[in-house]
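Handoff note, outgoing to incoming analyst
You'll be picking up this chain. Sequence as last confirmed:
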Amino acid sequence: MKNGVQFSGTQDELKEILTDAQFVVFDDFDFINFTVDDIIRLLDREFQEQCVSVRYTDAKLKNSMTRIVLCNSVPCNI
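Most recent structure output, in case you need it:
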């Protein structure tokens, strides 16, 4: 993480998101293995903290984190 920006390109990297990150960048992220509800939880900022189940653990994203999605194709589940 540099300057409060944390990049995530895979589901496994979501487990490593630090609680003090200000921006989470989904860089060329593949949403194909997520359900619509999981994608909503990843991007939603309504609640103080959102948990999304990823391999063997939960990824926790706070509502203060700005989410930026960079991808080559739109997630087809939405």
